[in-house]
Amino acid sequence: MPEYKLLTFPKGGVHPPENKLTAGLAIEQFPIPSKVYIHVQQHIGVPAEILVKPKERVLTGQLIAKAKGFVSANIHSSVTGTVFKIDEIYDASGYRKTAVIITPEPEDEWAEGIDTSDELRTDIDQFTPEQIIQKVKEAGIVGMGGATFPTHVKLSIPEGKKCDILIINGVECEPYLTSDHRLMLEKTEEILVGTRLLMKALKVERAVIGIEANKPDAIEKMTEAAKKYEGITVQPLKVKYPQGGEKQLIKAITGREVPSGGLPIDIGAVVQNVGTTFAVYEAVMKNKPLIERIVTITGKDLERRGNFRVRLGTMVKDIIDYVGGLPEGTGKVVLGGPMMGKATKTLNVPVGKGTSGILLMRREETKRKEVLPCIHCARCVMVCPQGLEPYLIMSLAERGMWDKAEEAHAQDCIMCGSCSFVCPSNRPLQDYTQFARNTVMSIMRARKNK
Amino acid sequence: MSAILIAIVVLAIVGVVAGLILYYVAEKFKVEEDPRIDEVEEVLPGANCGGCGYPGCRQFAEALTKTDTLEGYFCPVGGNDVMATVAEILGLEAVEQEKQLAVIRCAGSSEFRPVTNEYDGPSNCAMEHALYSGHTECQYGCLGHGDCVAACEFDAIYMDPVTNLPVVVEEKCTACGACVEACPRDIIELRPVGKKSRRIYVACISEDKGGITAKACKVGCIACGNCEKACDFDAITIENNISYIDPGKCRLCRACAPVCPTESIWELNFPVRRSIPSNKVKPKKKPTT
Predict the structure, then answer these.
(1) Which of A184, A335, B185, B286 has the fewest CB atoms within 10 Å distance of its CB?
(2) CB contact set of A28 (below 8 Å; sequence gap of 6+)
(3) Where are the domains of chain A?
(4) Partner B, chain A 325-384, Cβ-Cβ below 8 Å
């Protein structure tokens, strides 16, 4: 194995057990389920406007809900079939949201203009930056690392700002998850074409693909493939959580720090996940909208684990049934990874654009331990990658002192959960800091709008 | 001996000079304050509950002395009596307001609303609400951690240990609105006390479709529209799958309650009805102090 110079972010960080149980399993195609449930809001922003009616026949890749406003994303049908009804069903947030329910036909009939072949296309010169952004917007691509922020918004650089570096996030620092890892191994060339498309759209000369050092095979393969393109380099990173946090990744690679309350673009950087990069490739080169994604299904007691290419809108229950049902003693089903993922309220939740994994956790792992008083050991302060004081923010949030929480920079929390992970008193630090962050942010927004 | 004398003389001079400076400064930088502020503050209850919309009674008193009309200014704790005295002090006309009380618009006790999930996070409604839709199928109903109880300055609300729902103590409730603010689900509403303290309201706020509500909770409003039809005074409207009784239009005739299939219309402090079959009589919420 070649020697790497490993970069990392300077403050804090933790080392949760990696448990990448599915790293060696190739991506499999998940069969089309008996019903798909497509939420009209799978992104941050305004819900899309539904264009179809019940009993209408839709094709795979057909636009079924149109983005409403700039910060919004198009929604496409992931199957060929008839619209069964439009109803409210649970989404990953645990609340019922409007969704289009479609009864699929067994065979796909693709909407016009979509190239479904596996052939690699690299002729990116035919597109102008505006065309690329337009195609990304039409395809309804959002940040697929989990934040689901519309990608075309991120690519449209505001007036007066300049981007000089594109960072492709292949870190995947969350334990258990391997969907990005598999994608980098199996779709290496496609990701690099996607990177070039993003570079062109952003008009930058330099792109860095950041990969954590626990994926040496991906680092090797990506480095080898990136050699033929000028300006693209692969940067191995130290194994430390949350290395894949946007702000942490920028700090590690460029040494620049995103200012409090600012965006990466303020310091000339744009970060895109490898899943998003692959989706950009498919959208621009193949005209294929975002209708499927790679989902890792894993868990210590699960025998049939895997990385599946799942049509968006497939119920989590269907996926779990496919892999042999819930193992005995399952305590929580988490959408996403164990650090930042969210336990679902019910299994009747569809896979959305931001669902990177389904994790079945044992009951004894998920049970919260008794909360003890804070002993002021400051371990939460030491591990906070943002340099915050979680114990302080928690006690401020408990008392509803939001002005003081703002002074303590609760709004800069990235919700990585490192504080809760290390707390020897089992205090729900992440719950409270996240709550404080959201409350303070909404207070700040209200003040700004006033 | 002379040392003591010198010390006394020097100290006396310093004292007189400092006193003169202090007097001068106090006169020069005197803040003119309306003497009525103190008078008004004296009459106000002094609970500093914030029910009037100001941080405390002093700030409310300051605002009162500056205004030309008492329209829109009301101390819910003191009520009309206090406002009348305030009006007298300020020489303004008192604006009477109907006394209000907090009502809990959720009747989903554990008996009627089965628990579907185990929640072991922080025992705090705001927190559970922020995390997900709650430990029952109903995403609108009471979470039962008692944020409203913690917010009440007057001990006027407590959690019923059997139903795990909050109960308002009529005698103590001042309608300051602290619980309304504290409830992340917006379940608590301030409603006029009504004649003889009689009130009638829909104890449900679920905006889910009837089928979903019925599955989640046996006493939820399913928006069937029976009450709307039964009302002769147009006081009941159904919007967003939920029925609402407008206290301004309601004549307390009680025609709506018996027709409700889920018994989600609550009557408080009415005499027991004779004409309806016994199985239709709802448990009366009799607050105890």
Answers:
(1) B286
(2) A306, A307, A308, A309
(3) 1-9+126-367, 29-104, 379-449
(4) 342, 345-346, 367-368
Which residues on chain B place their C-beta less than 8 Å from a C-beta of chain A?
Answer: 116-117, 120-122, 124, 126-127, 130-133, 139, 208-209, 212
Q: Is A425 on the interface with B (CB under 8 A)?
A: no
A95 touches chain B (CB under 8 A): yes
Backbone angles phi, psi at A30, to 5 degrees: -85, 135
Tell me what pLDDT residue B133 has: 87
- pLDDT category, B289, cuts 50, 70, 90? very low
Beta carbons of B133 and A95 less than 8 Å apart: yes
Cβ separation of A431 and B121 shorter than 8 Å?
yes
Beta carbons of B127 and A94 less than 8 Å apart: no
Identify the H or E element spanning A403.
helix A402-407
Best probe of the B interface among A344, A431, A433, by most B CBs < 10 A, is A431
Shortest alpha-carbon distance between residue B254 and chain A (Å): 34
**Among B97, B61, B93, B91, which residue's Cα sits nearest to residue B79?**
B97
What is the homologous superfamily of the domain A1-9+126-367 according to CATH? NADH-ubiquinone oxidoreductase 51kDa subunit (3.40.50.11540)
Best mutation site among B124, B128, B179 for testing chain A: the one with the most A CBs within 10 Å?
B124
Question: Smallest Cα–Cα separation from A417: which of A328, A338, A362, A348?
Answer: A338
Question: Rounded to the nearest 5°, which phi and psi values hold at B90?
Answer: -85, -10
For the stretch B63-114, pLDDT in tens is 888 888 888 888 888 888 888 898 888 888 888 888 888 999 999 888 899 8
Q: Which residues of chain B lie closer than 8 angstroms to A90, CB-CB?
A: 133
Nearest chain A residue to B182 by CA: give it. A400
pLDDT at A2: 53
Q: Considering only CA atoms, which of B164, B186, B208, B184 is closest in space to residue B103? A: B186
Task: Specify the residue for token string 């809990």.
Answer: B104
Q: Is the peptide bond before A47 cis (omega within 30 degrees of 0)?
A: no
Residue A58 tokens, joined: 């839709």
Placement of tokens 């303004």 in the chain:
B92
**CA-based radius of gyration for chain B:** 27
pLDDT in tens, B10-63: 999 999 999 999 999 998 888 888 888 888 889 898 888 888 888 889 999 988
Beta strands in chain B (DSSP E): 100-104, 157-159, 166-168, 188-192, 199-202, 236-239, 242-245, 265-268
Q: Give the position of tokens 């909404």.
A: A442
Check if A93 contacts B (Cβ < 8 Å).
yes
User: Euclidean distance between the first and final Cα of chain A, in Å?
Assistant: 58
pLDDT of residue A250: 95
Q: How many CB pairs under 8 A join A and B?
A: 40
- In chain B, % helix, strand, coil (3-state, to 5) comes to 35, 10, 55
Domain A29-104 fold: OB fold (Dihydrolipoamide Acetyltransferase, E2P) (2.40.50)
State which residue of chain B sits closest to A438, comparing Cα positions: B130
Q: How far is B56 from chain A (nearest CA, A)?
A: 17
Inspect the interface and report whether the beta carbons of B116 and A94 lie closer than 8 Å: no
To the nearest whole percent, how much of chain A has pLDDT over 90? 82
How far away is chain A from the Cα of B164, in angstroms, using its nearest Cα? 21
* pTM summary value: 0.85
* pLDDT at residue B279 in the model: 52
Give the residue, A71 or B283, on which the prediction is more confident.
A71
CA distance A268 to chain B (A): 33
* B132: nearest Cα among B96, B185, B209: B185
Other C-beta atoms lying within 10 Å of the C-beta of residue A152: 25
Q: The complex's ipTM?
A: 0.84
